[in-house]
Design brief:
Elements (H helix, E strand, L loop, with lengths): L8 E2 L7 E12 L2 E12 L3 E5 L6 H8 L6 E6 L5 E4 L13 H7 L7 H8 L15 H13 L5 E5 L7 H18 L2 E5 L3 H7 L2 E6 L1 E6 L1 H4 L3 H7 L1 H14 L33
Parallel strand pairs: 1-5, 4-8, 4-9, 6-7, 7-8
Antiparallel strand pairs: 2-3, 2-5, 9-10
Helix pairs in contact: 2-3, 3-4, 6-9, 8-9
């Protein structure tokens, strides 16, 4: 499994609900600050969505949590934590004969049936014998997700996992992530540029621009002045309207339907802090 551990990662206190916790995390590359004093935590069954402009440090943050880049600060993992990781880029060697089944089996050696089960769960069992080099963008996205869940991870780190997938396929895949979270009880830390997905799927949103600018429930974050400054008032207004349209249902009279009267809520206003703050 993709379990990333090093000497800087310590075990959390037994009562700490976090699967992973970062405290005062900073990363510098060639003298330039990429992340500054970032603190965050992800708990089981959360979908935490990480947003921010290009170059804000989102990919670096995931790599720092995995111990893949030099960093300052502390990363604390729950003991025995299983991590599934989908990187932003996955380079395919078109000269290498490699089937989808074999790619998944590499990450589950000796576990009979694990690859087949993972492929079936993400809806691509029929692709098992297909060459990886010939896959479409949507097919490859599902293959990488199958690779990430083959060991039923406690924590999924997903770095723009569906870039290049069409809108319909992207929506279906985000619903799949929510289903997998429910089935496995996993925590999810997801980097996304699709802010409408944030409104629909996130338990909590973290807005990053080298440091944490704001965080909380999606509906609260889009009204935060730091969010408006980063993304502009037009985007904030459009997302606020989207949240309004999706967090309740209007009756034919124009009144808002009471809970239990067919109303549904996609954007939740139950902001809660899980560590972190301004960098």
């Amino acid at each position: 499994m993709l379990c990333y551990n090093n000497a800087e990662m310590t075990d959390p206190a037994p009562k700490d609900p976090a699967l992973v916790r970062a405290e005062d995390l900073s990363v510098t590359v060639a003298g330039a600050p990429i992340l500054e004093h970032v603190s965050l935590a992800v708990a089981r069954r959360e979908i935490v969505v990480l947003i921010g402009p290009n170059g804000s440090g989102k990919t670096t943050l995931l790599r720092a949590l995995l111990g893949l880049v030099p960093r300052r600060g502390t990363v604390v993992l729950r003991p025995g934590l299983r991590v599934g990781y989908v990187p932003q880029q996955f380079t395919r060697d078109h000269s290498l004969p490699l089937t989808v089944r074999r790619l998944i089996e590499v990450y589950a050696p000796g576990e009979k049936g694990a690859a087949e089960a993972a492929l079936a769960r993400v809806g691509i069992a029929a692709l098992a014998e297909k060459q990886v080099a010939t896959l479409s963008g949507g097919e490859m996205a599902r293959v990488l997700l199958a690779r990430a869940i083959v060991h039923r991870p406690d924590l999924l780190l997903l770095d723009e996992p569906f870039a290049g997938v069409d809108l319909a396929g992207e929506a279906a895949l985000y619903r799949l992530i929510a289903e997998l979270r429910d089935e496995m009880g996993s925590g999810v830390l997801l980097v996304s540029h699709d802010l409408h997905v944030v409104m629909a799927q996130a338990s909590r949103v973290i807005c990053l621009n080298r440091h944490i600018c704001c965080q909380g429930a999606a509906g609260a974050v889009i009204r935060d002045p730091a969010f408006v400054e980063l993304f502009g008032p037009r985007v904030a207004s459009e997302l606020a309207l989207y949240a309004h349209d999706h967090d309740h249902r209007h009756l034919p009279t124009g009144e808002v339907a009471a809970p239990g009267n067919g109303a549904h809520a996609h954007a939740h206003e139950h902001g809660h802090s899980h560590g972190g703050g301004h960098g």
